[in-house]
Design a protein that fits this description.
Elements lengths: L1 H33 L6 E14 L3 E2 L2 E2 L6 E13 L4 E15 L9 E15 L8 E18 L10 H5 L8 E13 L3 E10 L6 E2 L2 E4 L3 E11 L1
Antiparallel strand pairs: 1-4, 1-12, 2-3, 2-11, 4-5, 5-6, 6-7, 7-8, 8-9, 9-12, 10-11
């Protein structure tokens, strides 16, 4: 049984890697195409705090409660291309630590921490001509789960809890899709401060056989500081 679980997770990880490889290839090709207008092309790095939660899930005829929020972080880089004075495009590659504090009515309050490689693809709108430093971002994000850990509040292993069973490797959706909406302000043409909300669209776990889960969508508030080169 352990071999089957390991094989499933290895297959899912390999599939995620191949999808990521294709996306990175497409983004690289796009950057090379835009290189002719390099003055409109900017690169940057960013990092910040996540305030993450997971929506309520229903499984085996039961409905759980919404989770409490959990503090995590994100870090990575981005490329921004200005199409005009009011419109731009931005692609990012981020590592994001997110998850939730859930309530297991039989046992206590386990916490799940999950690591994702996220690729937001966003449109940038500069609606206020007199304040070009202020931007609104909207778009979508594709994420790939690369790790998971379920513990009790004291840090001990939460094996046997409902949440641990629900998020076993063979039951995790390794692919996560989210809608993204946020704002950003740039200082001194380099320093950026932003906030956004990632609204999960795909279930965090799906189950197998008679064990089907609906819910556990990842919802994340992010506050970031960045530097544009």
């Amino acid at each position: 049984m352990m071999h089957l679980k390991s094989a499933h997770y290895t297959f899912a990880s390999t599939k995620c890697y191949l999808i990521m490889k294709k996306i990175i290839f497409i983004l690289t090709a796009l950057i090379m195409t835009l290189d002719a207008n390099a003055q409109n092309l900017k690169f940057g790095a960013k990092a910040g705090m996540n305030v993450a939660s997971m929506s309520a899930a229903s499984y085996s005829g039961e409905k759980e409660k919404d989770s409490d929020m959990m503090i995590g972080f994100h870090v990575g880089g981005y490329v921004n291309y200005s199409i005009s004075e009011v419109l731009g495009l931005q692609g990012e590659l981020l590592f994001s630590a997110q998850g939730a504090n859930k309530t297991d009515e039989m046992s206590g309050k386990p916490e799940v921490r999950m690591g994702f490689i996220n690729i937001p693809l966003l449109a940038e709108f500069r609606f206020i001509p007199t304040v070009p430093e202020f931007s609104v971002f909207a778009g979508s994000q594709i994420g790939f789960n690369i790790s998971r850990k379920v513990t009790w509040s004291d840090g001990s292993n939460a094996s046997g809890s409902k949440l641990d069973d629900m998020l076993k490797p063979e039951k995790i959706n390794t692919l996560d899709i989210a809608a993204v909406l946020g704002v950003q302000y740039m200082f001194m043409e380099h320093l950026t401060v932003g906030a956004r909300y990632n609204f999960g669209l795909t279930d965090g776990s799906s189950g197998s056989g008679d064990y089907k889960v609906k819910g556990n969508k990842h919802n994340v508030i992010q506050v970031s500081v960045g530097w544009t080169f």
